[in-house]
Amino acid sequence: MTESDALLAYLKNNGIKAHTFQHLAVHTVEESKSLRGDIPGLHTKNLFLRDVKKNYYLFVTDEDATINLKQLARRIGAKGGLSFGSPDALLEMLGIRPGAVSVLAIVNDEQGRVKLVLDRKLTNTTAINCHPLSNERTTSLSQEAFAKFLATTGREAVYIETDEEAPRS
User: Fold this and answer.
1) What whole-number distance in Å separates Cα of residue 24 and Cα of residue 51?
2) For the chain, what are the domain ranges?
3) pLDDT digits (tens, 9 = 90+) for 89-117
């Protein structure tokens, strides 16, 4: 059983309704847009980040968002600047490799070492689309299903505004 299959079984076993679509492996947002087909809802971009004190963050936003890491660091209270976490840290903490980073990987962070930060834009959509630990699939979750997923993992997300005009959290 692959990691992705295990995750989909986890969702099913916890009564979390999800629709999963198979497609060729995607490595960039542009590839995803051209290969995934027409899947309604917001498609996510996921950034695995760390600050200078080695605090780790998984930031999830809209795939089309442009992120200023300096501003993001201030908004999430990171110590010093933010940089991308290493592939080794990603594997150790979230159990995945680059290219398959997803909010669903939080299921593998049983020790709660990675702070989950979500763009508030995710609350304004009917469906959240993300990789189920494989970049050859896209899983779509309703807001209700997403909330249930977070609850079953025992995780709470911090929501922030990313738009320039928005007030700081």
Assistant:
1) 33
2) 3-160
3) 999 999 998 888 999 999 999 999 999 99
pTM of the model: 0.89
Judge contact between 32 and 134, C-beta under 8 A. no
Q: DSSP of the chain, one letter per residue?
A: --HHHHHHHHHHHTT--EEEEE-S---SHHHHHHHS----SEEEEEEEEE-TT--EEEEEEETT----HHHHHHHHT-SS--EEPPHHHHHHHHS--TT---GGGGGG-TT--EEEEEEGGGGGSSEEEE-SSSTTEEEEEEHHHHHHHHHHHT--PEEE--STTSPP-
Domain 3-160 has CATH 3.90.960.10: yes
Burial (Cβ within 10 Å: 0-12, 13-18, ≥19) of residue 80: exposed
Do residues 158 and 143 lie in contact, with contact meaning Cβ atoms separated by under 8 Å? no
C-alpha span between 75 and 104 (Å, rounded):
23
- Summarised one tens digit per residue, pLDDT across range 30-57 is 777 666 667 888 989 999 999 999 999 9
